[in-house]
Each structure stands twice: as C-alpha cells, then as structure tokens.
User: Fold these one by one.
Assistant:
Number 1:
Amino acid sequence: MSFLPPRPASESAGVVNRFNPNCSDFFLEGTTPNLPGILVDGTVKDQNRYKPICQLFKYMKKKKVYNTYMFATLYDTTNKIPVFSAFTFTGVGPSESRPDTWMIEPQLDGGLDPDMSLENDGVTYTHQAVNQDFHNSVNLTGLNKGHLFSKGYANQPANQNSTFTLTNCVPQVQSFNNGSWGKMECKVRKILLKQCLDNTGKPKAYVVTGAVPSTNNTLNNRVNIPDLMWTAYCCYNKDQGKWVAEAHWGENQGEGKGKTMPSNSMAELYEMLNQHYPDGGVQVFPDQCSTAQRLMDEDVHDHCVYDDDCVCSSVGIKGHYLPVVLFPVLVMRML
C-alpha cells in the first residue's frame, strides 16, 4: 500500500479514502469502478473497512533495487478479501516459479513499510488474511489461494511475483479455479494478446477482477469464502476502430471436468452485480466500455489442465488425462 505524503490537517480529508494517484494508470482514464455503498466516484464510503491499496513491490534487477507500483486493489478488512484488483494488461513475458510463501500488506495492521512483504514473526494481523489461514486448506476444505490479478496476465517476472500477495487472493474452490475459471483466464489472455493492440502494435487492455462475498461462509473462521468471482476487460481495438469489452463470472463452488464459462457483455455484468449491490449503479469502466461490442471469440471446449502461465499440461481422452510431455504426437493430432 502506498499512502500519499502527509499533508496539513486542512488538506488531510480524502487522502486515506481514495486511491493513490500512482495507481491511476491501472484504471481506464483513471476512473475507478462504482460499487454502491463501497466505492462511489472514486471515494471509499466506509474507510474504516475498505482500504484502497496501490500495490507497491520491491525487487532487485541487475543488482539495483526497484520499488514499483504494480496494480491496484480495494481491500475489505472485515471479510479479509479483496473487493477487486485492477491492472493494465501489457502482454506476457518469461515466467518464474511460484513463491513458497505469499506476502501481506504491513500498513493494513499499522506497519510502516509501504511495500508488500512477508509476515513478521510475533505480529498479529487482524485486518487481513495470513498464510496460516490457508494452511493445508486444499486437503481440508478443497480451497486454494485464487488470484484476482493472475500471474499469467503479468508481463515480467517482477510483475508476476507481485501478484502473490494475500491482498490479491480469495479462498477459491480448487476445481473451479483449475476448471472453468482457469480456462476462461487463458482464453481471455489469448484475446488480449491478439485483439487489444495499441497504435504501436503492443497489447494494452484494462482488466478488473472482483469477488462477491458470502454471508457467513469462512475459511479458518476468519477469511470470507466468496459466493462468486467476476472479471471484465476493456480495450480499444484499432483494427475495428472501436472499444471492445467482455465480462465473465462464475459461482465459487465445486465443478466437474469440462465445464466452461460463458462470456457476457458489460450490461449483463452490471445487471448481475446490481443484484448484489441493491442500491444499483454498478459500473466497472467508463461509459465507452459500457456499450462496447463484445469480441465473439470461440468458447473453450478443450480438456487441458492449465497452469499459472496458461500452459496446457494435459488433455482429456474419454475421461482420462494424459501428460502432454509423454504423448506429444497424440496431443498434436488431437489439437
């Protein structure tokens, strides 16, 4: 998290209940989503509960230390999950392995470090999830750490590593995460790489991914297990000369192999989210995205099991899954 520098008392209003301007590039035209009762016209309504985080990541490259803002998150300290994470997609790059331990946000619990970092021994974190909350959660509950800003959408190893903070994840049912949600993420990544190109031919799209909390379903009696997850992107398609946008959502529950997730328009997403924010008026992107055309890409009907980098690790043959690396010729024929 990065707060604005201290200001005189007369100027302090609005400092802690709005996103740091360093995060503006992660929102189209610098415009944050509207979620009635939570975030309206860029202002957090209950700043004791909801915290805007400009995700700051410290890393080393070529023996130099860098502090870089990577993405933006609105965090719910009561449910201990993010409301949404927002980022700018600019392509994908070389990948590194997953870290063993996820980071936390020190400033949510009174820390002074502005960077996301590892937990400190002896510190009690009351306003956010910690690694212990997820200890053995897959075996015990079938839940894993589900990214909002996915590692597979990040363009460099440092960006990828920055996604492994617990302020960017929710308890997600593993079969949903590895199933229709994971396939959808990989399908969307293909679309963004091909269809969302700026005037220089480089990928550029705005993505917001969120979670709708459950009423009383929790992990470790602390961390809310959301009822559903949603995601949307918007970009300017220079070939078509117009804005395009698409949305997806799914219930956070167990599912069988082969299930896919339909694509939806922004209007359909708003209609769905307005059922969960009854005051109405949900809007994720500026107006040009609200009525933008949806790209009619083919649905995912393959039987791959995708990893974090959208690499197909196996294919289904009559209900059985075979490692791709062991059957390259068979796989190529099937594809």
Number 2:
Amino acid sequence: MGGSASKPPSPKWCTSWRDITWGDNTEQACSVKAYHPSNNNANHLRVLLHGPVGAGKSSFINSVTSTLQGKISVGAMTDATSGRSFTKKYKTHKIRTESQGTFYPFVFNDIMGLEVEAYNGISVGDLKLAMRGRVKDGYEFRNGSEMSEDDPFYNKDPTIDDKAHILVCVIPIDTLSIMKDEVVQKMREVRLAARDLGIPQVAILTKIDNAGSKDSQDLRKTYERQYLKEKAEEFSQLLGLQLNCIFLVKNYSSETRVNADVDTLILDALSSILTYGDDFLNDL
C-alpha cells in the first residue's frame, strides 16, 4: 500500500448492501439501551478499540455517547492536528444512562494508535495484553514498549469484566488506500491474536463524509454508494473480515446538535457490536 490519496470519483450507485431503517430511531435506540449481558457473571460488555493514529477511535466513543444521550459529548479527548497518538493512557469509558448515577452495561476502551515504526505507537504486545484483561486502568502506554509482568498496572488475575469481549478496528475510509504496510501488518497480527482468543471482531470505517463531493453527502445513501462499497470490500480483503462485520459511520465532529441520520449509522454499528460481543461473553 502507500502512495498519495486519490480523489473519490463522482457518485455512482449500487444496490444497498445493508438493510437500514431511516427516520425514527426510537426502536433501535430502545433496544440498545435495554441491553444487559446475557452472562450473569458479567457486569458489563467491554469493547476494545484499535486502529492507526487519527482513525477516529475516541471520536467514535464520543459519537456513541452523543447518540445515546441526545446531546453532543466530548468526554473522550481527541486531537485534530497531531500526527502522533493523542491517547496515552488506558481508560475505561462509561456512558451515563438517563437515571441518575447509573451507566449502561457496556464500556469502551480506547488505546494508543498503531504507528509505522516499531518504536512508536502502541506495541502489539500491549494490545494483546489488553484483550486478555491484563492491563489496568491508568496504565500509560510507552511507544513501542510492552508492559512487563512486574509493572504495577499489570493485572495478574483478570476477571470476566476485565477482558475484552469484542475487538473493533477503526479506520478512516479516506486514507485506506494509502495505509502503510507496517500498520496493516500490525493490524493483521492483532486480528490473529483475537482469533486465537475467540474474540469477535468488527470494523468501523469512519470519515465517510470526506469521501466524495457535496452531492454525495446524503447519509441515507451511504450503503448505496459504489465508492464506499468498494472501500469496504477493499478493507474486507485486506484483513479478511466479512462485509457484515464492516460498518460505515460518520462521527460527530463539527456538529453542535445530534442528527437523526448520523445516529442511525451509529446505532446500526453499536447494535451489532453488542450482539456479537454478547455471543462471546455468554460462552465465557
């Protein structure tokens, strides 16, 4: 891979490859909000996000929070300018419910981004430890360096709640074609590690609003745009994920109010994340 980013072609259309109901999100939002782990030994489902620097991992967490709370949230810190990973510490992000002092029974963990150089970004070793629940909240990632077992943030006895129950790869669709081979190789290594642990995997392709001209920005046509389908197929071949595990999302970025169509795409992805993750959690 590598090279220069190519300009997306003028909009071309295909038969929709994802069945989505647009307009009223009430039913799907209620279904997500009613989720509870089917394994009675678990207090929550843990979603672990990974991907290259600037992919939109923290923004996805904020977007999910915004959708569920009905107002724009910036709880997970993001950075729009740095070429390096902005996330340095391992942190569990909880989302408050409408009831005072309570949280939804699913949590998100954002991590340091994957970078080209072996000595920069999160080490694949640390990512593997996080999947196994070996990393405690507050651990500060060190560029290219793996946590040792004598580190005070090393969790020697992970519980079912500490482990990752689904791995979500977040990729900006507008830079997919120029992603460096070294980053792709790290992602493949992470994918194989998750496979060996039996952890389900999905991908979120972000920044779909950057992939085209203004006349192609109708979010309701997201899964009818030939260009976006081709990008999803490109990523599917790259990592071996099936298309039904790949979701197209526009994160909240410039908006000051929530938008029903943005929410629809977020809820579609989140609903499947919870379903796939709960299937794994139920077998633990």
